[in-house]
Amino acid sequence: MSGPVIPCPMARCRADNPFDADECERCGTPVRGHARLTAYTAYLFNRGLAAARAGRLTVARDHFAAVVHWCPTDTEARNALALAGYRLGDVTEARRHWELVCERRPDDPLARRGLSLVVEGSS
Ligand SMILES: [Zn+2]
Fold first, then answer.
1. Which domain of life is it from (predicted)?
2. What's the CA-to-centroid distance between 64 and ligand 1, angstroms?
3. Residue 70 C-alpha to ligand 1 middle, in angstroms?
4. Ligand 1 center to residue 7 CA distance, Å?
5. 106 in any annotated domain
6. Which of 38, 39, 59, 95 has the most CB atoms around its CB within 10 Å?
7. 34 CA distance to ligand 1 middle (Å)
8. How far does residue 96's CA lie from ligand 1's centre (Å)?
9. How far apart are CA 43 and CA 50, in angstroms?
10. Is residue 65 a part of any domain in this protein?
11. How many independent structural domains does the chain possess?
């Protein structure tokens, strides 16, 4: 297969589909909306990173929060949301998001490091 592909969003399938596919060729799950949402959240995530680099942490946090709203399983965005919250002084919120990351990925190094920060800070 050549050109861009859309991976099926279903964890048990993950088949690659042509970029213009309406539904997964293997399992029939609609992929078109998923592809659009993925592109949109990637855009929001990059805007959030740019804002964070520019020191605009509140803007960054809002963008990361929107990504997590659309993609609750996106641990990279949730880690970024937690870190932005932490740097804004919202330790409770940061801790909550890092704990959610660790529920999905117990060995996630960013979330582990984050949690060690907030646990030390609160004791
Ligand atoms: Zn599929």
1. Bacteria
2. 27
3. 20
4. 8
5. yes
6. 95
7. 12
8. 32
9. 11
10. yes
11. 1
CATH, residue 81 = 1.25.40.10
Centroid of ligand 1 to alpha carbon of 45 (angstroms): 25
Q: What is the dihedral of CA 16, 66, 89, 117, to 10 degrees?
A: -20
- Domain assignment present for residue 18? The answer is no
Question: For residue 12, how far is its CA from the centre of ligand 1 (angstroms)?
Answer: 8
CA of 63 to the centre of ligand 1 (A): 29
User: How far apart are alpha carbons 107 and 21 in whole angstroms?
Assistant: 35
Considering the domain boundaries, does residue 32 fall inside one? Answer: no
| Exposed / middle / buried, residue 33 (Cβ in 10 Å: 0-12, 13-18, 19+) | exposed
What is the CA(73)–ligand 1 centre distance, in A? 18
Identify the domain containing residue 71 by its residue range: 56-122
